[in-house]
Amino acid sequence: MLNLVEKYSLLGCIQCGRCTGGCPVALKSSLNIRGIIYNAIIGEELGFAPEFWDCTTCSTCTSRCPKGVQPVDVIVGLRSIQIESGRVQPTIKDTLESVFKYGNPWGRIREKRSDWAKELDMKNIDEGAAILWFVGCTPAYDPRVQQIARSLFSIFKKTGMNFGTLGNEETCCGNEVRRMGEEGLFEILVEDNLKIFRKYQFKQLVTTSPHCYNTFKNEYEGLDWDLHHYTQFLSSLIEEKRLDFSKELNKTVTYQDPCFLGKQNKVYDEPRSVLKAIPGIKFIEFDRSRERSLCCEGGGGRMWIEASKEGERLSEIRIRDAVELGAEILATACPFCLLTLEDAVKTTGSEGKIEVKDIAELVAEVI
Length: 367
Fold this sequence. Notes:
Elements: H1 2-7, H2 18-22, H3 33-42, H4 60-64, H5 71-85, H6 90-102, E1 131-134, H7 137-141, H8 146-158, E2 163-164, H9 175-179, H10 183-197, E3 204-207, H11 210-219, E4 226-229, H12 230-239, E5 252-255, H13 269-277, E6 282-283, H14 314-325, E7 329-332, H15 335-347, E8 355-358, H16 359-366
Parallel strand pairs: 1-2, 1-3, 3-4, 5-6, 5-7, 7-8
């Protein structure tokens, strides 16, 4: 384990336990980040523990470490060892193989990637556009999340933006691939995406998903374009009075901070400014919000990984809290949050009490 100690500067750890204490999945899993780091330092064999895959890579542990240790990187490193050995769940193998073969983790063929937009007047970036909209895998393929993509299309059209997409040429950004430990495949995706981007003369890059935004911003060397998550972009349009509203949405709304937008990139204000700008909305905050927000458990590859232990999911806690708060709509700005939270509405028996909507869907309703 000496290599892990040196690679991740683990000797800086003072074993205060703030990482494990803040970990949102620690209460329902045997995942103990402090213990993992301690065992790595003393040279104990860490083996192939299934709880390594319980981590959502939300980075709460990293943000709470007083010594600047990066516990998430340690987890990803340990996953990489398991990936290289082939000792992983079949769902993980299938997901990574799908990304390699088809450019998406959902097992869908590449030629179907732009089918969601076949009835829309969508410009391809090769026709010339100032803004490249990176739609993302889940908005392109998942039937529920396609509604977010269609909503964003209607908003962008309404504002007269000169935007285009890569169509079927678009491929996975690799954010979840890297967090599942497949570093080699991630490097291939980075190289492929940058090669595609450089073919076209656009000035700005806008993403639907916080996961795409995160990896483009923090892990793509040579990404030279002006980058925005769509909530940042809409917030600017509203501020510049380029996005107007024609209707009211008389609902009480709260907001789920996606981990890859909030905790990891400090984008807290823009999504809230968009929601508060919608006429008629009464906006209320969770007690646990912003940097204290509770993870939905969709990140870190967890959309395709079976947890080692069952129990109440964090998304279910979030739905119960939202209902108790008196919210009629739980808004978010992440495809994974949308899917996990909508599922939790069903499993908690909260149908009819609360709706889960993406911010883009709410804006599209009132423009």
